[in-house]
Amino acid sequence: MKIGILISGGGSNMIKLIESCQNNKNASINIVISNNPDAKGIEFAKSKKIKTKIINHKEFTEREDFDNQVNNVLIENKIDFLCNAGFMRIHGEKFVEKWFNKHLNIHPALLPSFKGLNTHERAIKSGVKFAGCTVHLVRSGVDEGPIIGQAVTSISIDDDKESLAKKVLKLEHKLYPKCLKLFTEKLVKVKNDKVIFSDKAIKIL
Ligand code: GAR
Q1: Euclidean distance between CA atoms 75 and 72, whole angstroms
Q2: Mutate to test the pocket of ligand 1, among 106, 150, 164, 180 (most ligand atoms within 8 A of CB)
Q3: Closest CA to 174 of 151, 147, 154
Q4: CA 11 to ligand 1 centroid distance, Å
Q5: Which atom from ligand 1 is nearest to the alpha carbon of 142?
Q6: CA-based R_g, the chain, Å
Q7: Which of 40, 107, 134, 150 to mutate to test the pocket of ligand 1 (most atoms within 8 A of CB)?
Q8: d(Cα 9, Cα 58) in Å, to the nearest integer?
Q9: How much is the average pLDDT of 22-29?
Q10: Rounded to whole angstroms, how far apart are CA atoms 163 and 101?
Q11: Shortest CA distance to 125 belongs to which of 113, 141, 112, 133?
Q12: In the annotation, is 107 catalytic?
């Protein structure tokens, strides 16, 4: 399986995905695309000799043109599966259709709660006692789609948005590679948006 990763920033999740595919004969990370020319993750990918491409969304007036450019690069590189790892752009419906059931996203909250931005701040303000992260298949609604995996931590009275973000990011780094593995090893099936987990998948999660 040839995997593409979309990033916008630091790329710490991307690093974990890259590391998890090293020495994997079923899967390889073949390209990392960033919409942000200053994304730090690009340098790490380069250092691992992974092909990188900047597609700056600011150079496009229409979302669809940006999406098409991303899609063209993925097709040119014969990508089979896509992972958003801190990718901060919304995909148009056509793009979502093209990668249907072959496209994961990680979100730093326990979906379906706290979709969108500033998740940690909103979670603390709301008074919820647990936070976490979710890996899900991408659908056209923001942070919507069948859930593959979640990981949970508690919110303590001392937590602020920074400390909570750190705790959750740690969980993300463990969860995302496991969820990707379920696809690279074909341990899950998706039928009518229901995810069917094999016994082996359940053990991995
Ligand atoms: C991660 O916490 C990820 O879940 C979040 O951005 C951070 C990126 O960190 N993604 C979103 O909020 C997407 N809606 P990273 O660049 O170090 O992986």
Answers
A1: 5
A2: 106
A3: 151
A4: 8
A5: 14
A6: 16
A7: 107
A8: 15
A9: 92
A10: 33
A11: 113
A12: yes
Q: Decide whether any atom of ligand 1 lies within 6 Å of the 106 Cβ.
A: yes
Phi and psi (nearest 5°) for 143?
55, 35
**Residue 45: how many other CB atoms lie within 10 Å:** 24
Tell me the residue type at 112.
Answer: P
Nearest CA to ligand 1 atom 2: 108
**Cβ proximity of 181 and 102 under 8 Å:** no
To the nearest 10 degrees (0 to 180), the angle between helices 161-184 and 119-126 is 120
Instruction: Tell if the pTM clears 0.90, that is, is over it.
Output: yes
Q: Which residue, judged by its Cα, is nearest atom 1 of ligand 1?
A: 86
pLDDT at 32 over 90: yes
Vertex 14, ends 186 and 82: CA angle to 5°? Answer: 45
Lookup: tokens for 158: 């001392």
Assess contact for 10 and 34: CB atoms under 8 A.
no
Inter-helix orientation angle 12-21/161-184, to 10°: 30
Residue nearest to atom 12 of ligand 1 (CA): 107
Q: If 0-12 CB within 10 Å is exposed, 13-18 middle and 19+ buried, where does residue 29 land?
A: buried
Q: Coil, helix or strand for 156?
A: coil
Does 86 contact ligand 1 (Cβ within 6 A)? yes
Q: For 117-127, write each residue's pLDDT tens digit.
A: 999 999 999 99
Under a CB-based contact definition with an 8 Å cutoff, are residues 142 and 119 in contact?
no
State yes or no: pLDDT of 23 exceeds 90: no
